[in-house]
Design brief:
Length: about 500
């Protein structure tokens, strides 16, 4: 699919067209509404309410025209506008449009005045690239209803906005494609997407990275044993699948050091282990690898966007099963940095896996900044729902940079506390830390507090994506399943990375 900016003064030729309107403008009087469309619209039908869509089918310049409501100009925000455009794109795609024109909204005087038209065009472009994605490889092709596909998307805007938009749109498309790569890994079921399979996919990604700046190393059980990663190995011991650590290295800067390390929880299936989960919705635990899948997408995006930073990505891949060799509640594990862990619940396995992955990454690469992504706690999803991921860190500037990046790309973050006063919640009587806090008390913070001894003194942020990484409903124009969350966020953060600002 090609997606590009186009001068709105040029004649429009497309199968589908989206015209957007703020509420409560008089739609019939609106200068953008072509005369051929005006006659077929009853004013009461369309008021421009947020997300409202009315489709007109006519023999005009486009056979399908969607009038898209953006809501009250002073009340809406960019997230809602972007979602509305992506949903409208989806409707036109289903209507078998091959070419789609999206008329950009006028931003002057609206709640969106703090965002430029070029960045909004970029946001819409990446959302459209992601709205175009479907996971249908296991569905047989239906001869009667061939798959619909869009070849071209034009973002129509004033000529003055085109140079800046061309840049932001091309960057955004690369981000959207990287996120789609992550989604295609997330959506694979656990019987296919084993740690070895994901590692092999990551290797394919590294090989196909165009500028050859992405290298990969895969470590299996023997190497993990040599590195004393006993915590991660314990989590995988109940499964027939061999645990793997994938290390992806992207060098885009001239200096030698690592600017950032991105670490992802990759539990390919989380049955809970001996502390087994209830069956309802257990199928969704194939998405417990989402953090690791995001890492692979992020590193692929670094390479395609040619970001001028050195980034290392670490995906910790392991399956949590209740086999005869499984680890048990009561076990005491020693992670690779010597820190001991008392296991009180084998379902709190993500933090146990991350313990080794973070300690290994910190020691091996000494990155200036470390960020981890993990579907870590149900508590985070209870607190924030599916609209924001949790960010936990003691580094205020890192938190605000990540939050800003989230606002710029539409993947919102909300800070949860990580004060030292919470550390007691995970102190163990028999080891350094225990893997559960008090049930029902500050669960997301307990998860992050547990990770502190494995990170040491460095700029680090933990992103809890349990509520946002995937979903059973379409969201903001994206199909249900993996949402590729975290990919655009971290790429956006890395795009603005300033080494001088990093301090603990
Ligand atoms: N993978 C889950 C967290 C999760 C829950 C992700 C729901 C997405 C949706 C994690 O491994 C887990 O089970 N965490 C436990 C921790 C508890 C036992 C301390 C939880 O959140 O209940
Ligand atoms: Zn679990
Ligand atoms: Zn888990």
């Amino acid at each position: 699919m090609k997606i590009y900016a186009q001068d709105s003064k040029n004649a429009m030729h497309a199968d589908g067209l989206v015209l957007s309107f703020w509420q409560p403008e008089d739609v019939k009087q609106h200068p953008k509404l072509p005369s051929w469309a005006a006659g077929s619209l009853d004013a009461a039908e369309f008021i421009g309410a947020a997300g409202q869509m009315v489709m007109i089918r006519k023999n005009g310049p486009a056979r399908c025209v969607i009038l898209l409501g953006l809501g009250m100009a002073e009340k809406t925000n960019s997230h809602a506008v972007v979602a509305a455009y992506a949903q409208a794109f989806g409707v036109l795609k289903n209507a078998r449009c091959k070419t789609v024109a999206l008329e950009m909204p006028a931003l002057v005087g609206h709640a969106l005045h703090n965002i430029s038209l070029s960045s909004l065009a970029g946001r819409i472009a990446s959302q459209v690239v992601m709205a175009d994605y479907v996971f249908d490889k296991y569905k047989p092709a239906d001869k009667d209803t061939p798959k619909s596909s869009v070849d071209e998307v034009m973002l129509r805007m004033p000529a003055a906005n085109m140079p800046a938009s061309a840049i932001s749109v091309s960057r955004a498309v690369l981000m959207g494609e990287a996120a789609n790569l992550t989604r295609s890994l997330q959506n694979e079921p656990a019987n296919v997407a084993t740690p070895s399979w994901i590692a092999a996919e990551a290797a394919k990604t590294a090989r196909s990275a165009k500028n050859g700046k992405l290298s990969i190393r895969v470590m299996g059980r023997a190497e993990l044993l040599k590195l004393k990663m006993n915590a991660m190995l314990a989590v995988g011991s109940g499964s027939a699948q061999e645990p793997k650590i994938v290390v992806l290295q992207y060098r885009g800067a001239a200096h030698n050091g690592w600017d950032a390390a991105i670490v992802g929880k990759g539990v390919t299936f989380d049955s809970g282990g001996i502390s087994i989960k209830p069956s309802s919705k257990m199928d969704e635990m194939k998405f417990d690898k989402s953090g690791a899948c995001a890492v692979i997408g992020i590193l692929s995006g670094c390479a395609s966007m040619r970001l001028p930073v050195n980034v290392v990505g670490v995906a910790a891949l392991v399956e949590n099963m209740p086999g005869g060799h499984a680890y048990r509640p009561g076990d005491i594990l020693t992670a690779c940095n010597g820190t001991t862990i008392e296991v009180l619940n084998t379902d709190a396995e993500g933090r146990v896996v991350l313990a080794d992955a973070l300690a290994y990454t910190a020691k091996t690469f000494e990155p200036a900044v470390m960020v981890d992504l993990a579907t870590l706690t149900g508590a985070c999803s209870v607190a924030l729902g599916d609209l924001a991921s949790g960010v936990l860190s003691e580094n205020d500037s890192l938190v605000s940079e990540l939050i800003d990046a989230g606002e710029r790309c539409g993947e919102r973050l909300w800070r949860l506390p990580l004060w030292p006063e919470y550390d007691d919640k995970v102190k163990s009587e028999v080891a350094v830390v225990k893997n559960t806090g008090e049930p029902g008390v500050a669960g997301a913070t307990a998860g992050a507090s547990f990770l502190k001894p494995f990170v040491g003194e460095r700029a680090w942020a933990h992103l809890d994506i349990a509520g946002t990484a995937y979903g059973s409903k379409p969201k903001a124009g994206l199909a249900a399943g993996g949402y590729g969350l975290g990919v655009r966020l971290v790429l956006e953060y890395l795009s603005e990375y300033k080494p001088a600002k990093k301090k603990k």
